[in-house]
Each structure stands twice: as structure tokens, then as C-alpha cells.
Amino acid sequence: MDTSSEIKVRLPDVKDTATIDFNGEILEINVQMLQELDKLGEGCFGTVSLADVKDHPQVRMAIKKMALQNTGENQYTAMTDLKTIRAVGSEGYPYIIKFYAALIDTNDSQLIICMETMDSSMDRFYLTMHRIDQLQYLDQVLRRLSNNIVGALNYLKLKNIIHRDVKPQNILVNKLSIYKLCDFGISGLLKDSVASTNFGSMKYLPPERLTPGDPTPYGIRSDIWALGISLVSKE
């Protein structure tokens, strides 16, 4: 089977080369120029690594690699993640992770999404604060985090998008204490401000979404609930 031609049918506008604007520096990049430096995370649908660009070591990005040949669910997640981050990560909103480019690795049948790097995730940040006993700053941290992520969720709502997987691992922070929302693989469109498909991490689902086999409509309040659980989570 010619997997490269199969990918091109699905993603006709994504190639193995792309033009990126990295802090005002315009670069033409390709898959072979991405040099992985460290693995940042791994999930059911792919891996995220820190990478720089060959001959441009100052250009550092987080690259998410997702296989395009595994399962229908994997395909859905890759397409949804790309479509959503293109829609919300290209406009410079301060509390949404920035999108640079998408590439296709035809050799490995992978979609590669290039995004801005951050310094930590909320779950790792929490663990560090507990370990070094800096809990006196926790209220200040939670106020800023809540403000930033509620802003991000409202921004998504204005675009009729619901995230559906708000949790500590999907909230990133940088050294300026700015929190940003990432990972839009199971996000969905709102119709009349509600959605009904039952996606999400069980631990962070609101009560109305926990009834098996009951597609109860839900809206942004579901994401707000998940954020609240994230704020009190110690994991």
C-alpha cells in the first residue's frame, strides 16, 4: 500500500515542508531538519518532544508526532488536534499554546504539529511546589492559573469549540507564570452552546456526563468543572 499517497488524500494541504514565523524570523523547514532533543511526554495517540531546527539552534519547538495509520480513533484525534490548533493557536491568544506549522513525515506515516515550548506542565509544577515546600504561594498561583485558563476556555467558546480534556497535563506554564491550554485532540464543536459526544478523562468529567450510555448534552461548564478538579488535584 502506498501510505504516502493515502496521507496526501487525507491532508492535501499538509506537506513535508512548511514556512514558519518564529518570533519574527521566517524559516522554511522540512521534516529532516527537525532534531529531537528530549522527550516531553507520551500518550495514547502520540509523543511530544523538544526539538530544534538544523542550522538554527535558536529555533526550539515542541513537536507532537501522531501516527496516521493505526486506528480510526487515532485518525480522528490527529485530524481534530490539527484542525483546532490551527483555528485557535495561530491568532496569538496569550493563553492558548501557539501553533507554528504542520508537517507530514511520509516515511513513518506521521503527522507532526510544531508548537511553542513551555517550561512545565501544571501537574509537574504542583509536584515541585509540594517537594520544595513553597505552598505559601499556592493561592497566588491558583488565582493566576484560573484567570488564564478560564480566559482560554472563553476564547474557545467564542469560536464554538469545547476542549473536553481539561486536566493538569494539558495546562502548561512558562517562567513568566503564564498558563496556556494545549492538546485539542478530542475537542469538539458546540451547536447552540452544547455538545453531546462523550469524550474526556473520566476523573475530570462532571456528574451529568458519568451516566453510561446517556449522551446528555453539555457545554463549557463541563470544561470549567474539569478545571476546578484540576485545581485541587495533587497528581
TrEMBL record:
GO molecular function: ATP binding; MAP kinase kinase activity; protein serine/threonine kinase activity
Transmembrane domains' residue ranges: none
The enzyme's E.C. designation: 2.7.12.2
Sorted UniProt keywords: ATP-binding, Kinase, Nucleotide-binding, Serine/threonine-protein kinase, Transferase
Record carries keyword Kinase: yes
Domain of life: Eukaryota
Entries under PANTHER family matching the protein: DUAL SPECIFICITY MITOGEN-ACTIVATED PROTEIN KINASE KINASE 4, DUAL SPECIFICITY MITOGEN-ACTIVATED PROTEIN KINASE KINASE 5-RELATED
Protein name, UniProt field: mitogen-activated protein kinase kinase
Organism, as annotated: Didymodactylos carnosus
